[in-house]
Design brief:
363 residues; alpha/beta
Length: 363
Amino acid sequence: VNETEAMQHAIELAWGGWGRVHPNPLVGAVVLADGQVAGEGFHAEFGEAHAETVALAAAGERARGAVLVVTLEPCAHQGKQPPCTDAALAAGIGRVVFGMRDPNPIAAGGAARLSGAGIDVVGGLLAEAVCRQNAIFVHRCRRSDRPFVALKLATSVDGRIADREGRSRWISGEPARDFVHWLRAGFDAIGVGGHTARFDDPSLTVRGSITPRRAPARVVFDRRGELPATLDLVRTAAEHPTIMVAGPETHVARFSILERMGIQVVSGAPTLAAGLARLREMGIESLLVEGGGRLAAALLAEGLVDRFYWIQSPLWLGDDGIPAFHGLPGMGIGETERWTIAERRSLAEDTLLVMDRNPCLPD
Ligand SMILES: NC(=O)c1ccc[n+]([C@@H]2O[C@H](COP(=O)([O-])OP(=O)(O)OC[C@H]3O[C@@H](n4cnc5c(N)ncnc54)[C@H](OP(=O)(O)O)[C@@H]3O)[C@@H](O)[C@H]2O)c1
């Protein structure tokens, strides 16, 4: 196993913390002794052991003189856990290879501390892949006034998200739907447009293999603020935190009914950007928007989408189907943005394509 292969493995391991460690980053680590994996680990629970400590403990005596390969620069600060730099020094590690420098100023400085102690330290191995894996964490460290916004849509080959009757259940197959439950677990909130809320009345809860540490809130963008109180989405608001983002021209009288049912109303947001800023103020740092097509197009046109999870299924729905992006202004090939491909894989018969608006640039 070489260092690059060990880093790829550490990135894989790091996913083990998805849904459990945020707002901390996902981190994986491998101890390499004479080209063999002597120990491995990942940050599995918020506030608990860091990846390096787990991998070093697993390696035991074999860590002496070995290489520690870790996705994120080892932290140099005392938080809920002791500094990882101290654990590496105590274990007698000879060399440290890390992926991305820690963008969190409080935890940074680990590389300098290790090289100051005479350890051979190399940073930047597969840094872009690590940055992509931690896009939400990086966005948070860069102190944006809105959450990290990811959009997820399941479409036909011809870019429709529902058939001519408005039915979208189910365009994609079960493995793709399982993936969406896994994905939801890592976000602070799951959002939909008002038409989708009325038409599909989705539950927007996480029902997959991961129980998230904090269940994501549900957000409905309904400009007129007229969600019917008969929706299950509204009736279950007391059990599952639910927020309605409404525009300035709304039926304020209706709010008290919805509020009595447990909906938190964010009213008077003049634009989607303003609505997102209000969500950020409420502590929502990441939002997964699951449609529909009007909301998707409006967010995209305003430059408010950071990542797109596109699930494409092998069927056609024709011109009367509901378009994935409805109302997007026309653009010339030369003037439109070209996005960066983050991942491509198959989910049984469906295809997942993950793309980022900007390449994830490590600090
Ligand atoms: N396959 C999938 O992945 C998928 C996912 C979700 C939904 N769907 C399907 O999509 C269909 C619904 O989609 P849709 O495109 O009709 O509607 P939609 O995107 O669900 O709803 C649009 C909502 O967003 C509101 N909105 C708030 N701010 C906005 C802004 N700045 N610009 C535009 N809209 C804004 C609209 O308000 P106004 O009413 O004031 O314009 C409206 O309430 C359903 O048939 C559903 O089954 C499919």
